Task: structure prediction
Amino acid sequence: MIKHNIDNRFFHGCGDCRDCCNGKLFSMGEVTQNDFNSIVKLFPTAINIKTKKMMFFYSLVPLVGCHYLRDNKCSVYDTITRPNTCLNYPFGFDKNAVVQQDTVNCQNLNQEESDYPTLIDGYINPQVMNDFFTESQYISTVNKDHLLDDFITLLFQSDSLLNIPKFKTTDGQLIDINEIETNQDMKIINIDKIKSILERQKNNSYNHFIEGHLISIENFPQFGKRLLEQI
Ligand code: SF4
Ligand code: SF4
Result:
């Protein structure tokens, strides 16, 4: 049975709302182990030193909207690499694979009746599962192991984090995203340091995360260009 923590609401579709994408609600999301491979291809990632979570940037500053929102549409909507959090919202899994719903922020998930109730006889409406989640997402969340969490713990234990360096946008302009208050807790991984520690330990378990993070930070220059165009 699918575990959930939702009360009876009705979804009305997104219509003209783009609040998930236009910066009103989010500028960052949490990287989960299941979603890691998809996210690193599209978004820069960094570690938040206060929450000790790996996060990805929808945009490098709050309120400007996701890098991939173009002409009020998601330009990666049909790709398989769109993050699960985009696919699932206004629903989502917590770490224990319990389905949650965001009734605070999603204006079209409310108590006004529609033909899309979130619950039927107290059970989660299977349509929610079909329309917002894939079965494999759910199963992999249930069976989640903790390798990414363990890797993040190791990064802190070994002091293997660095300030996000200034970087050049794809237009060649120098940009320092640390000047933005919300980015001041964000650090990238000190690749050389963590690699040498893992080599000494003969431990290959985390190479995948290191390579993925490297791929993800290659997105900074194009995100920087887009940011300067937007602000
Ligand atoms: S906030 Fe809700 S209604 Fe608005 S775009 Fe997101 S899911 Fe759709
Ligand atoms: S990737 Fe697409 S769906 Fe996700 S926040 Fe960006 S524009 Fe919205």
Remarks:
- The first strand starts at residue 10 and ends at 11.
- The first helix runs from residue 36 to 42.
- The pocket of iron/sulfur cluster (ligand 1) is lined by residues 14, 17-20, 89-90, 106-108 (CB under 6 Å).
